[in-house]
Amino acid sequence: MTAPGRRTSPRIVLVHTVTFRQARQFVPVLIPVVAATGLDGGGTIAALVVGITVFSAAVAAVAWWRFGYTDGPASVVVTRGLLSRSVRTVPNDRIRGVEVEAPALHRLFGLVRVRIDAAAGAAGEDEELVVDGVPRAEGDRLRVAVLTHRGAPGVPAEDTGPAEEELSRWDNRWLLYAPLVGSYLALPLAGLGALLRFGDELPGDLLDGVELLDVPAGWMIGVALVGMLLLVGAGSVVGAAVVNWGFRLARRGSSLIAVRGLLTRRHTELELDRIRGITVSEGLGMRWVRAARVGALVTGLGDAERRGQLLPLGPRTEAWSLTHRLIDDPGPLHPHPPAALRRRVVRALAAGLLVTAAGGVLAASLGRWELLAAGVALTLLGAPLARGLYASLGHAAGPRSFSVRRGWLVREQAVLERRAVVGWEVRQSLFQRRAGLATVTACVGAGSGGYAAVDMATGDVAGFALAASGPWAGTLVARREG
């Protein structure tokens, strides 16, 4: 068994005691004990609180005493555990990225948490190493050491690397985009739902005074709707500010560094050599105001949705400017053939006509017209919906990169380097074969693992794969000629 190596700061024991971090796993055991003994009186509750706090402190102290880490020229080693000791070793060449977090309570004690994306986890094990509770200077030293192999004890990261080149900086005006982003609306919508449920539980006599007001019901409903919309919009802006406040993206040597966060400050570093491509995402609401988000496709990166984010929210021009600074522009997208549009029109109208037919039967038999009206509306909206879906399709291949685009509610365009491709998959349904179309997917070792050009002309598949990856994709040409 290896030696413990470096230790984290003993101040982390206080942080873990306050948050009951280690003691949380024992809560399921304590619940039946408390239920069996009962709580009779304030003295019992106070004794229980004191006991849990003491127990949490003891567990946190033991966990700190038995935790150690070592970063050397070849690997990072983390040792932990009391009765069952574990030693995890990750080679430096398997490390994909490093994130330094500083939650509010950690900042109060002058500590940070370092997350090292290892991409070497065993089955059922997190693909990251976490060193929780080191001073800020040590966190910066560890970050530099594992990524650039140039760390030296006691030397801050700012003094060990080349000058930074700033690529993007957060503008507070971008917060106005937040109400149009679904992920920022989730939390305020959940809060609004909880508030409405709470309102249903209020006694009826509390609302009797409202009925005495000489205000039309329509005005009351309108004011309530506007108030709810303002509340949800304000909540999304606050949520975006908490997560992205002070966002800054810079390039230092061979790494990308992203810093963000209001309450929890995060410092994420990614190796440029492991970035295989960029995705530019535009939700339906974001397209109305020409906004977009940018993410990096990094090999082996855990939690890529958050850690791989290079621009959390901003103007579309800023998003594409950043993308082309990191990945070569493959050129404008080529539209897909008219047969792809016809497929979308047929599917959109077929769904509307099917609902309309079912609604007609229901209206004739039961006199209910709701489903018929919905079917007519769906049919009328089918054509513009189909055109929107078709307009999202496209592909392009340049000398050093290629691009594919798809999606309607969330339109995503991926720009990938040629070296990212590890294989191609070509699929054709019966209807695609009859229409002369195919879906070709570039298999890559990053991001979602595959990025598809949907309903491309069959004759363009082999040429696109050859241009987007190299001569080894010539087997597709040979198969087509055979």
Keywords:
single chain; 6-stranded antiparallel sheet; 16 helices
Overview of this protein structure:
With 482 residues, the protein is α+β, with helices and mostly antiparallel strands. Among the domains are: 12-161, no CATH class; 338-391. The protein contains 16 helices and 19 strands. The protein has helices at residues 12-19, 27-37, 42-65, 104-108, 136-148, 182-200, 208-211, 217-244, 284-288, 304-307, 316-326, 338-366, 370-391, 430-435, 458-469, 474-481; strands at 68-71, 75-80, 86-91, 97-102, 111-117, 128-135, 164-169, 248-252, 255-260, 265-271, 275-283, 291-298, 309-315, 394-397, 401-406, 410-417, 421-427, 437-444, 450-457. The strands form four sheets. Strands 6-5-4-10-9-8-7 form a seven-stranded antiparallel beta sheet, with helices on both faces. The chain has a six-stranded antiparallel beta sheet with strand order 13-12-11-16-15-14, sandwiched between helices. Strand 1 (68-71) and strand 2 form a beta hairpin. Helix 1 packs antiparallel against helix 3 (42-65) and helix 12 (338-366) runs antiparallel to helix 13.
